[in-house]
Amino acid sequence: MSSSGSQPPAEPTPAPAAVPQAVRASLLATEHWSLLGTRGTVWSEVMSRISIHLTVASASLVVIALVTQASGFGTAFKVLSIGLSSAVLVLGTLTAIRVHNASVDDTVLVIGMNRLRAAYLEMDPTLADYFVTSWHDDQAGVMRTYTMGTRPAMSHSLGSTTMFVNIVNTMVAGTLGSLISNAAGAGPTVVVIVGTISGLAYLAATIEAARRTFARPPVMAHFPSPAD
């Protein structure tokens, strides 16, 4: 005889009903459009940030030119040029960080859309010949989606938004190094050397930061590319 505190046996959990293919396709398409909308919003905000950065940089050059016309290349010019260059470099670095983070977010969004295409192929394998982009969510699959199935080229990296922002910041960093060394009384040769080293050091640091981030996938691959 069972004790009064014993519990009746639990009822078996019913197996989930199979979801119709039409419902699955609708859910996947909704998620796909959500990822596309998020991707567009991210890059729209990034382009606005870059526009603000370039506007501030251009306005700073105008201010420096006006001050130079009024007072020449004296103390006022040195203080103002160093201050504005520092401000532009800080703003540009923050913009570069935002672009970098947006690139990571974009990679994750591309991974998500690649996974959705894998689900589409699971429902209808004959769709494979119609996809230009990849249905694999590893690094190779992401690169195939970015390059639309073409062979990756160096121009994709050199012409990227990240490289554009970093090159602008590199020029500002080199200019700032030259201005500081000139204000300290260095000769022309030293000014050129300091400016060059400052710019190249900034560029090397940003490239290394990007390399470390994108050397490893942001999420684990569920549908890796074939071994060949």
Number of strands: 0
Shape: elongated
Strand percentage lies at under 5%
Number of domains: 1
Give the low-pLDDT segments.
none
Please give the count of helices: 6
Largest sheet entry: none
**Rg over C-alpha atoms, rounded to the nearest angstrom:** 27 Å
Question: Can you give the mean pLDDT?
Answer: 87
Percent of residues in helices: over 70%
**Computed structural class:** mainly alpha
Distance between the termini: 65 Å
- SSE order, one letter for each helix or strand: HHHHHH
Overview of the molecule:
This protein has 228 residues and is mainly alpha-helical. It has one domain. It is 71% helix and 0% strand. It is built from six helices and no strands. The chain has helices spanning 21-71, 75-123, 139-146, 154-158, 161-183, 188-214. 21% of the residues are buried. The mean pLDDT is 87.
Could you write a compact summary of the structure shown?
The chain is an all-alpha fold. It has six helices and no strands.
What is the element layout, followed by pairings?
Elements: H1 21-71, H2 75-123, H3 139-146, H4 154-158, H5 161-183, H6 188-214
Helix pairs in contact: 1-2, 2-3, 2-5, 5-6
Observed structural traits:
single chain; 228 residues; 6 helices; 71% helix; 0% strand
